[in-house]
Amino acid sequence: MTTKLRNLFAIGASAFLLAACQGENAGDSSEGAGDSNDTDTEETADFKLGMVTDEGGVDDRSFNQSGWEGMQAWAEEHGVDDSAVKYYQSDDAADFVPNLNQAIQDQYDIIYGVGFQLSDAVTQVADANPDQHFGIVDAVVEKDNVVSLNFRDNEAAYLVGVAAAHTTETDKVGFIGGIAGPVIDKFEAGFVAGVESVDPEIEIDIQYAESFSDAAIGQQIAAGMYSSGADVIYHASGAVGNGVFTEATDRMESGSENQLWVIGVDRDQEELGEYADGNLTLTSSLKGVGTAIQLASNQAMEEGFPGGENLVYGLAEDGVGITEGNMSEDAWAAVEEARQQILDGEIEVPEAPEAE
């Protein structure tokens, strides 16, 4: 299982090109690979995957996009045509149930709700359609027709916290969360613990956008943090993070006195850190959303749908990780050491922030 997950995670962490995202609120896979044998294609021909995004949209360059890239990779792996995978984009929470119902009408074998915000909608629609198979990412829905896919995000967040602490020159860093809740709590808790493991005197500015889609709010919060002296910001906020990168690149291109850094989330966001004189993405915490979707889908095809199960992926399963990015050699060495300590059980990473 671990070897299989490692191989798939390597695929999921790569930057697959998105299919065109404009127009209809649905996307198609990239063209099927010609190397798959005919038997595999025939077995997969009638098996289709649907995906309903959260409010960040499929081109958020983060969480939803990672899920969609995983579905595209699944289609390529099995050599199926464009109609085998499809996404339904949600502009807000009111779209969740209609999109799930539309996917049922379109006869997709497994329909994935990407993000904890879809938990109630998936529960409601799963109750009304007991013969339909669903998946939920970043939540647990205890239904026989739902598989839950979750991650130890706190472990990867701890590692980027170590990287931030070894990189900051102002001894002040920032964390920008999307919508507060148990999932983003893990990012915050891990990041804070990682920073404090290196130097408990480093100041950590923690703020929430209460959105996963509003890039303008992300830019506004980042502007305040950088103006207050932070030189490294980690965001766990979906498309809100695009505004964080915009603010950092604008400041660097305007001649910032400090070297500013952004830490990406869910997928490698190095391309977002490009500016005239270099790249300011320090690292990115990786989350195998697409990999988990591939694994669950393959399991359903080969062994039967894993309904009612909560599948959890962390460092040990290669389900989360971080990129080397633009870290210094010393920072990367410290990250590697911390990673091994987590795997060896020497470090237990908290899942929730300490109560104030």
UniProtKB/TrEMBL annotation:
Gene Ontology cellular component annotations, sorted alphabetically: plasma membrane
Subcellular location: Cell membrane
Keywords: Cell membrane, Lipoprotein, Membrane, Signal
Signal peptide: 1-19
Keyword Lipoprotein: yes
Membrane topology designation: Lipid-anchor
Residue intervals of the ABC transporter substrate-binding protein PnrA-like domain: 49-351
Sequence intervals crossing the membrane: none
UniProt key word rRNA-binding: no
Chief place of localization: membrane
Gene3D superfamilies recorded: 3.40.50.2300
Protein family (similarity comment): Belongs to the BMP lipoprotein family.
PANTHER family the record matches: ABC TRANSPORTER GUANOSINE-BINDING PROTEIN NUPN (PTHR34296:SF2), TRANSCRIPTIONAL ACTIVATOR PROTEIN MED (PTHR34296)
Listed name of the protein: Nucleoside-binding protein
Organism annotation: Marinilactibacillus piezotolerans
